Amino acid sequence: MFARRHWIPPGALVLGQLAHGFAWAFAIWIATCGSIAAITFPALAWVHVVALGWFTLVALAILLHVVPTFTDLPWRAEGAARWSLAAFALGVALLVAAFAAWPRLLLPAASLLVAALLTYLAAAFATLARLGRVERTERAIARALAITLIALLLTALAGIALAAMLAGVRVPAWFASLPAAHAHLGMFGWLSLLIFGVSTRTVRPLTGNRARSPLVHILVGTLCAIGTIVLVVGLAMPIAALAWGGAALFAAGAVLYALQMGLLLRRAAVTHRPPQAFMAASLGWLLVALALGAGVLDGKAWQLAYGFVLLVGWIGQMVNAHIHHIGVRLIATVYRGEDDETPPQTLLLAPLSWTAFLAFQIAIATVACGLVLMLFPFVAIGACIGVLGWLAMMANLLRARNATQSTSPA
Fold it and tell me: What is the pTM (predicted TM-score) of this model?
């Protein structure tokens, strides 16, 4: 399922969507167990289901297509990179099980994850190292992708250090300051920077428009990359002034990105609206997350709501936008061949697309309010609505698969 040479490994996207659905169901269980803040290990399990199982696995799969398409650099050791996704998925499952029920698995699971990731990254860096062979634009893209992958590597190394600490291994005392830095390096340096870069290309098939200002793109990337570094250092040391400075730089770049994407969405020529709606919602939740993050730095107890909105609102809805376009395109090519160009809207049912969209936005708002106010029944209700949204989306994707199969060439 991972090794067959589709342009994006469909197995990884399937597992990513299963992790997505499990995250909503798991949130219901956590919310009904009492005080969420007191359930440390289940909460960590949930975060890693989302950040690793839903987002990172899918992102690594998509990069198998993005790297050669955006940089004109064919993969080196592509087979190893593809098979490493299977080991990575197994590592995610073991890590979540370790956090949820079997702490003794924590260090072995983290070790498997890092080993799988190192295999993938070795192939990726070997590919991107040949950037001298491509044109200037592709060379800049290759450098940007390398920066995000370095952030992923550093996030993983910090993660295995924290796993060792939680497993009872004697570690230096300063390891205790790593959790916030680890989280923000992953959410900002890896996932957010990746979205900022990749979406400037993928926005064209979603809207019919493309980002025409390289200067804005460079400014966004520079502000957010420097801001992430300063923020992570400030959180790790910890030095409040550095953390605030880094957060301000990242926020400036993120707001500029949101304005750029918002203008492209406003002028969208493509009539398939659900992916555009998901993208617009993602941008809105990014701004909400920045406001919540500022409150956290100011001492307010909004950490849970901030993390949830950043993950499920900002990153999750951007993933959903692409699933409703790129994901459906992948389904079509799996059954009809790599040259198929069936428009996604002809395979999806619009009522199901809009049901999923509305359910997810209501779910995120309800859970976020519940976490800010510490009203855990709200969290459970919101998560139930999220499950309904996920079921609607899965029904739609299955419908697209069946429609593709029924008309696929013999």
Answer: 0.94
Give the DSSP H or E segment for 158: helix 136-166
**Is 1 strand, coil or helix?**
coil
Q: Give me the residue label for tokens 């992708």.
A: 145
Alpha-carbon torsion (289, 376, 32, 356), positive or negative = negative
Question: How many C-beta neighbours within 10 Å does residue 216 have?
Answer: 16
**Tens digits of residue pLDDT in 223-279:** 999 999 999 999 999 999 999 999 999 999 999 999 999 999 999 999 999 999 999
Give the span between the Cα atoms of 159 and 260, in whole angstroms: 33
CA distances from 285 to 25, 194, 197, 211, 317 (A): 21, 17, 18, 21, 9
Tokens of 101: 């029920």
Tokens of 82: 């593809």
DSSP code for 257: H
Q: Which residues contact 9 (CB under 8 A, 6 or more apart)?
A: 1, 2, 3, 61, 64, 82, 85
- Amino acid making up residue 174: W
Taking CA 347 as the corner, what is the angle to CA 344 and CA 350, rounded to the nearest 5 degrees? 85
